[in-house]
Amino acid sequence: MDTAIALSAAPLAPRGIIRRLQSRKGREDPFSLFEEIRRAGPVVSLGPHALLVTGYTECLQILTDRIWHVPDSMWRAARGLNTEGLRATILDTLPRLNPPRHGQMRRMQSGPFTPAALERLRPTVRTLVRTHLDRLEAELNQHGQADFIDTVARALPVAVMCGILGLPTEDRALIARYSLETAVLTEPFADPAQTAAADAAAAEFHAYVMALLDERARTPGTDLMSQCLSHERSSTERVPREELAAHIVFLAGAGVETTSSLFATAVQAFEDHPDQALWLAAHPESVHQAIEELTRWDPSVQNAVRVPTQDTTLAGAPVPAGTLVHALLAAANRDPAHFPHPHTLDFRRPPQRSLAFGAGTHYCLGAPLARLNAAEFLPELLRRFPGLRTAGPATRAPGINLRTFVTLPVTRPQSVVTL
Fold first, then answer.
1. pTM of the complete model
2. Which of 94, 375, 378, 389 has its CA 20 to 30 A from that of 310?
3. Residue 361 — left, alpha, or beta (φ > 0 → left; ψ -120 to 50 → alpha)?
4. What SS3 state is found at 310?
């Protein structure tokens, strides 16, 4: 099937939509732009070789039907794209691997994310939540305001991930910097300057992890790095040390930025929807329901890229094999055909399956950890900081994949009503 001819059958995407999504205004509120795309159709063409998809049914099909793959190194090689060197190694981590390699690497890394392992981790997370909220309190008391991202939202998941992965406690600030600077590697429309800066940070991070892996090989522990090395020694399917390091780099970055985004989104949501904050504070036992609604309403990961391995259709539109398709998960999570009153944040909304953590083979490995972090964090935040509000606009990193926060100034009113 001729790709350009077939894709011409789909409605055109609104003019300049990617540029507008990447603008400061678009990063602050992409949802009005997603609705503009939806009005053009659930599947629209983005030039002659790619599609944008906003429909929930179509996005779910893309994520769960086995004919859909991620654009891995084989796909890139077939199009003359670089598949050699460190950047290619770092890119070939869980989100960019297809079966059977994806399953092998996922099993190797799944140990800390099992239900039993997470329950053992819960007391540690609870202690870290209190420690970081103590720091927020100290900052607010001393300065009247604080950067919520630097003090809590990124620092807390960094501390959790350092414990899981075996990264040194004294290097938490370094890990936080690496996490932020490498996030651009997930962005399909990053400009060359952004990509070059992210590549440099990723190379530093990779070298740092390689040195730690060498150390763990000499003195193993119980952390994930040690577990991966043990698997490397015992498995018949050996994984090069450079590849192991790349997966640690990915887990550290993904585990931090997605949870950081969730925490910051919650602060903004509580301020803009005080009725929901009051309800959740009065019903902390419903925190898991609130987390599902928060992640539906404004998910940390907003786009997933896939290619079909054979000719197929989406919403009646022909899609040739190999076509690059952007499944706009954040738009699907507000599809009115699936979610009544989709733009309303409602913590009492009956449970419905959202695509906040993906679906199918590539369902987010760290989703249970993100939920655990949020379940421990959100009720404590509401209890200790009722009325916490932003003290200025958030700064977000460029991109349409991740809702990455750089800064979010917050303050506390002089007098608040206790929740």
1. 0.94
2. 94
3. alpha
4. coil
